[in-house]
Amino acid sequence: MEAVKQHGLGFVRRPTGGRGVLHEHELTYSVIVTEEHPEMPKTVTEAYRVISEGILQGFQKLGLEAYFAVPKTSSEKEALKNPRSAVCFDAPSWYELVVEGRKVAGSAQTRQKGVILQHGSILLDLDEEKLFSLFKYPNDRVKERMQKVFKTKAVAINEISKRKIDLEEAKKAFKEGFEDGLGIILEPYTLSDDELDYVNTLAKNKYESDEWNFKR
């Protein structure tokens, strides 16, 4: 938390749980849908596959050959249950997106009160030094080793793209990707003043509080 404050970053506990994510230089998305929707599989893993088709299509529209990660060996599956690092992008989960063997998007899903929430982040650029400064390691040698391994497991779009892709181009590509991948039409929506007041009040009184973020 000292490093979070030193970098002037915010901190929030997300409802899907999981490992740590530095939200910066990225496009974030969220999909909210009833569990009763006829196109939504009953299992988390298969619902991941359906929703993540929108992300796959988005990468393809940017000219990147992304594909789904599917752990095959027992050791790969065990690694998902017992990660060696607290860094979310350290390893792909079922049906997360990979380019050239490295993770380019991280997602998480939860189901509550009959509703599915899947959200995630799509890396445009990555400040690796800042990311690793936010986590604790037994010593510098372990940190350096984990950081070196990380380079082989995760990558940002602009590190592998033949040209610079900015946020606006990414937004357009993934909007169209979700429309094509899920067979839907996305319509823009602007929150009213009352809705914005409600959101800001909820954030201030709950989601920005230490009581919420540190409770178990």
From TrEMBL:
**What Gene3D superfamilies does the entry give?**
Bira Bifunctional Protein, Domain 2 (3.30.930.10)
**In which domain of life is the source organism classified?**
Bacteria
Q: Give GO terms for biological process.
A: protein lipoylation
Q: Where is the BPL/LPL catalytic domain?
A: 1-186
Q: Enumerate the InterPro entries for this protein.
A: aa-tRNA-synth_II/BPL/LPL, BPL_LPL_catalytic, Octanoyltrans_LipM/LipL
Record-level Gene Ontology MF annotations: catalytic activity, acting on a protein; ligase activity; transferase activity
UniProt entry keywords in alphabetical sequence: Ligase
Task: Give coiled-coil spans as residue ranges.
Answer: none
Listed PROSITE patterns? BPL_LPL_CATALYTIC
Which Pfam families does UniProt cross-reference here?
A: LplA-B_cat
Q: What is this protein called?
A: Lipoate-protein ligase A
From which organism does this entry originate? Mesobacillus boroniphilus JCM 21738
